[in-house]
Design brief:
416 residues, alpha/beta, Rossmann fold, formyl-coa transferase, domain 3, 2 domains, three-stranded mixed β-sheet, 14 strands, CoA transferase, CoA-Trfase_III_dom3_sf, CoA-transferase_III_domain, transferase, CoA-Trfase_fam_III
C-alpha cells in the first residue's frame, strides 16, 4: 500500500478556533500541530530571515523532485504541518503591534520564550489579556515561571537527566555498557507538547462555559517528573530509588528482550498464564512449576536465576518461529523494528500512519499522520509545514486588513 495522500476534512473539532503560535523547536510546535490537526487555524510567527531554529537542523533536508535539498530540514517538518506562516520582528514597535492585533483575534497564544522576555515587548499574558480578556495563554519553559531554576534555559537532554529519566534508562550498571541513557527522541519536549495540548483544551472548555480566559504555565521538568509513572510510585512507596533495568522491567518478569538464534524479540508476559504458555512453547514446562518461578512476585524475586534459563531456551528457535508460536498462544511479543520495517509493517500501513502533502518547493512532503482517530471530526491535514513567511501577506491582508502599501512599507522596514 502506498502512503496516503492526505486531504482536508470538512468537519473538524476545532475549526472555530485561531491559535497564535510564537513557539519554536519542538515542545510548543508539537502542541500547535496537534491543535492544527484538530482543525484550528494556527498562525506560526517566526523571525524574518531566520525562522524557527529547526529549519536549519539538518541534514537531512526535504528533497525536491530532482533529488536536491530544499531549505526545510526534516526536523522542522516534524512539528509544523497545517500551519500558516508569518514573519514578524517582535523587537520592533510595529512588529509588537502586529502580534497584539493578531492576539486580539485569536483564542489561544502559545509561547516558549525565556521567563519574562515577552513582558518587555508588551506581549506577556498580563498585557495581552487587557485587549483580549478571554484569551488562553500558554507559556512553555524548561523550569516554569517561578522557582530557583526559572531563569535557566531548558533543554530536553538536560531535563531527561535532571528529572530522573536517565537514572531509569540504560543497561544495568553491573552489565556491559551499563550506565545512564537518554531516549532516542526528545521525550520531555514531546510529552510537554502533549500535556500543553490537554491543558489548552481544558482551558478552552472552561472559557466556553464561563467566558473566562486563563494562563497556563508548562515546564519540561514538571512533565518529566510527572511522566515517570510507576517508577515514581516505586520510590514514593519504598523510599528506595529505582535502578536501571535495561530492557527488563522492574515489576514484571519476563518482560524484556531475548536473543533468538537469528535476532531479538520482545516477550511481555504480563501474567502467570502467559508465562506458563511461554515456557511450554520453549519446551521447558518445569519452569512454570518451580516454586521460585510460578508467580510473578516469585519471578521478580528470583530474576537472576530465571533469566539465564529463559535466555538459553529462546536461543533454540528463530525470531519468526518464536513470534508465530507466541502469537498463536496469545503471549504478547514482537520484533524490534528499524524505521524502514516500521513503515513497511502491514498494521502501520493499515492505520495509514504515513501521509503525503503537497509542498511548494519539493512537490510533496512525506509526513507522519496524527494518531488521533475521531469518527465525527477527523483530523485535518490542510497543508505541509510552511515555508518561512509563506503566508505573511495573506495573514496581514485577510485577518488584519492591511492594504498592499502598508504591507510593502513593513517589508521595506524589515518588520516582516
Amino acid at each position: 500500500m502506498s502512503p496516503e495522500t492526505a486531504t482536508t476534512s470538512t468537519k473538524t473539532a476545532l475549526g472555530h478556533l485561531r491559535v497564535l503560535d510564537l513557539t519554536r523547536v519542538l515542545a510548543g510546535p508539537w502542541c500547535a500541530q496537534n491543535l492544527a490537526d484538530l482543525g484550528a487555524e494556527v498562525i506560526k510567527v517566526e523571525r524574518p530571515g531566520a525562522g524557527d531554529d529547526t529549519r536549519s537542523w539538518g541534514p537531512p533536508y526535504l528533497r525536491d523532485e530532482d533529488g536536491a535539498n530544499t531549505s526545510e530540514a526534516a526536523y522542522y517538518l516534524t512539528a509544523n504541518r497545517g500551519k500558516l506562516a508569518i514573519t514578524v520582528d517582535i523587537a520592533t514597535a510595529q512588529g509588537q503591534q502586529i502580534i497584539r492585533e493578531l492576539a486580539a483575534q485569536s483564542d489561544v497564544v502559545l509561547e516558549n520564550y525565556k521567563v519574562g522576555q515577552l513582558a518587555k515587548y508588551g506581549l506577556d499574558y498580563n498585557s495581552l489579556k487587557q485587549i483580549k480578556p478571554d484569551l488562553i495563554y500558554c507559556s512553555i519553559t524548561g523550569f516554569g515561571q517561578e522557582g530557583p531554576y526559572a531563569a535557566r534555559a531548558g533543554y530536553d537532554f538536560i531535563v531527561q537527566g535532571m528529572g530522573g529519566f536517565m537514572s531509569l534508562t540504560g543497561e544495568r550498571d553491573d552489565q556491559p555498557g551499563g550506565g545512564p541513557q537518554k531516549a532516542g527522541v526528545a521525550i520531555a519536549d514531546l510529552m510537554t507538547g502533549m500535556y500543553a495540548t490537554i491543558a489548552v483544551m481544558a482551558a478552552l472548555s472552561h472559557r466556553d462555559r464561563t467566558g473566562e480566559g486563563q494562563y497556563i504555565d508548562m515546564a519540561l521538568l514538571d512533565v518529566q517528573v510527572a511522566m515517570l509513572a510507576n517508577m515514581n510510585m516505586n520510590y514514593l512507596t519504598t523510599g528506595v530509588a529505582p535502578q536501571r533495568w535495561g530492557n527488563a522491567h522492574a515489576n514484571i518478569v519476563p518482560y524484556q528482550t531475548f536473543a533468538t538464534s537469528d535476532g531479538h524479540i520482545i516477550v511481555a508476559a504480563g501474567n502467570d498464564s502467559q508465562y506458563k504458555k511461554f515456557v511450554q512453547i520453549g519446551g521447558r514446562p518445569e519452569l512454570a512449576d518451580d516454586a521460585r518461578f510460578s508467580s510473578n512476585p516469585a519471578r521478580v524475586q528470583h530474576r537472576e536465576q530465571l533469566i539465564p534459563l529463559l535466555a538459553e531456551m529462546v536461543k533454540l528457535k528463530t525470531k519468526q518461529e518464536w513470534i508465530t508460536l507466541l502469537e498463536q498462544a496469545g503471549v504478547p511479543c514482537g520484533p524490534i523494528n528499524r524505521l524502514n520495517e516500521v513503515f513497511d509493517d502491514p498494521q502501520v500501513k493499515a492505520r495509514q500512519m504515513q501521509i503525503s502533502l503537497p509542498h511548494p518547493s519539493a512537490g510533496s512532503a512525506p509526513l507522519v499522520a496524527s494518531p488521533m482517530k475521531l469518527s465525527a471530526t477527523p483530523v485535518s491535514y490542510r497543508n505541509a509545514p510552511p515555508l518561512l513567511g509563506q503566508h505573511t501577506e495573506q495573514i496581514l491582508s485577510d485577518i488584519l486588513h492591511y492594504d498592499a502599501a502598508h504591507i510593502a512599507e513593513l517589508r521595506a522596514q524589515k518588520v516582516i
